[in-house]
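Fold it.
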Amino acid sequence: MLPASAQALPEGEGKALVEGVCSSCHRTSVIERSSGYTREDWQFLASTMIDLSNNPDTENAILDYLAANFPPSANRAATPVPGPLKIRFEQWQVPTLGQRSRDPVEDAAGNIWWVGQWGDILGRIDPRTGKMDEIRLPRGAKPHSVNIGPKGFAWYTGNRNATMGKVDPATGQITEYPMPDPAARDPHTAEFDAKGILWFSLQGSNMIGRLDPATGEVKLAASPRENSRPYGVKIAADGTIWVACNGANCLLRVDPETMEVTEITLPRDKTTVRRLDIDQDGIIWWVNSGLGGLGRYDPESGEITEWDSPSGPKSHPYAIAVFDGAIWYNESGVRPDMLVRFDPDSETFQSWPIPSGPVYAGILRHMRTSRDGKSLLIHQSGTNHIARVTVDRGE
């Protein structure tokens, strides 16, 4: 969704410039909700969003205002959890500024793809060389996520133009698949099943979709709970489709043959779930975004267990992945955005701040593992960074 108009900022010289320049891409409330930075860090942070190098007077006025009114503070401070594990971050800042790069995924050749939602961009990084390419998608698509499907095609969700899109990486040819129902207006997150069928959520439309790449046919099913806002999608080993509810205390189970949707009601009323993942035993792990926790659901027994996230009830866990024998997620409601590891055997946490270049800023909204399972692909959408996380075994 495009940003709304600017919010009230403190009075001071440079305020009008900040409102005019910064709110062209995001709410100025994003600035107010930050943890604050030094002038040097504000300069770097702004450089990841917009190039003001040709207008030094404007740049200096903006930086002076931000440094004076939003210095480093403990506002929304995270609660780090130390531990024995060491990890390594590799980062790439994407070429086009202000695009809100997100949702990296790896192809069979080891390239990492992303989408730039605000820039109608599909991007690709060769992590061995650092070379990056960007493909311009149809104007107004506002791609929300990308997956690599059969024949190596990149499939994206056209979140604002009600399409699913396919890009041939060899030719750059784009094929769009419009939704068959005008009420299905916002394809969101997608995953391929073992048969090559693409399943996707439509958050605002309260639907779940199915696209057959062989025929282009799209089928839709409604969530049984009004305003449940289907969000994250994962496919279980038995083919069952699992969907998170970002608007209600539920998970959704979809039968891959009939598309019948069944609700699993979660215990606490104010629970909302951005995303989920499934471990090797078929256990569903989910983030309680609304109440700041991590949840576990056993489909066989129906047992539900929850743990409080280290940074508390307002930490807003967002992305999640089963990786390296543990559950990894982030706390997006605190600063810095924390990458959290939960060991299901010992039920212990460890966490790290996620860098955006030399600062800690941005938000991680989706994470996935590499194809070989040896690394975790993440991003910082607010600063246009794509990143890869590996566990340092000291080898």
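The radius of gyration is 21 Å.
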